[in-house]
Amino acid sequence: MRKLLGIIWVLVLAACGSSQRGGPGRDDSQVPALQRAYPALAWAPADVTYVATGKVSDMSFAARELVTPLKVGPGLGVLDPTMVEGAFRQWLGVSPLDARELARIGIAVDQAAAVFSSGLLPTIALPVENGDALQAF
């Protein structure tokens, strides 16, 4: 739950936005403190509507935890994470709710990722650890 709260806190803070972004030729003192703490924020544009960042493994775990308590509708029961994982596997070929599967296809699950948007639909920026495995996927 603390990991989930941490991701939500970053989401709230980063939603305030910043026009300053780090990059080549800038010393670390010019990079906003929030971006120094969460380097994946550099992938998000300044006019971001929302952003979430954290280690891929933590974000995967948090997404699974968010799905667990969801009720589908009256009389339909609770949305089971295994149902959601199955749908993701069918649609994407891998479940983003399982960090082990992401690691298997070459994603660096111990590094930071970002989910952001300048509107409604999200962009997901994932760090790659093994480009060959990702291309083979």
Explain what you see.
The protein has helices at residues 2-15, 33-37, 56-67, 81-92, 99-104, 131-136, and strands spanning 50-55, 71-73, 77-78, 112-117, 123-125. By secondary structure, it is of the alpha+beta class. The strands form two sheets. It has a three-stranded antiparallel β-sheet. The protein has a two-stranded antiparallel ribbon with strand order 2-3. A hairpin with a 5-residue loop joins strand 4 (112-117) and strand 5. The longest helix has 14 residues, at 2-15. The radius of gyration is 16 Å and the shape is globular. The chain starts with a helix and ends with a helix. Residues 1-24 have low confidence and may be disordered.
Give me a quick take on this structure.
Helices cover 40% and strands 15% of the residues. By secondary structure, the chain is of the alpha+beta class.
Q: How many strands, which pairing sense, and closed or not: the largest β-sheet?
A: 3 strands, antiparallel
How would you spell out the order of helices and strands?
Answer: HHEHEEHHEEH
Low-confidence stretches: 1-24
Chain-averaged pLDDT: 77
Termini separation: 31 Å
Can you count the beta strands? 5
- Alpha-beta classification: alpha+beta
Which key phrases capture this entry?
137 residues; alpha+beta; globular; three-stranded antiparallel β-sheet
Topology:
Elements: H1 2-15, H2 33-37, E1 50-55, H3 56-67, E2 71-73, E3 77-78, H4 81-92, H5 99-104, E4 112-117, E5 123-125, H6 131-136
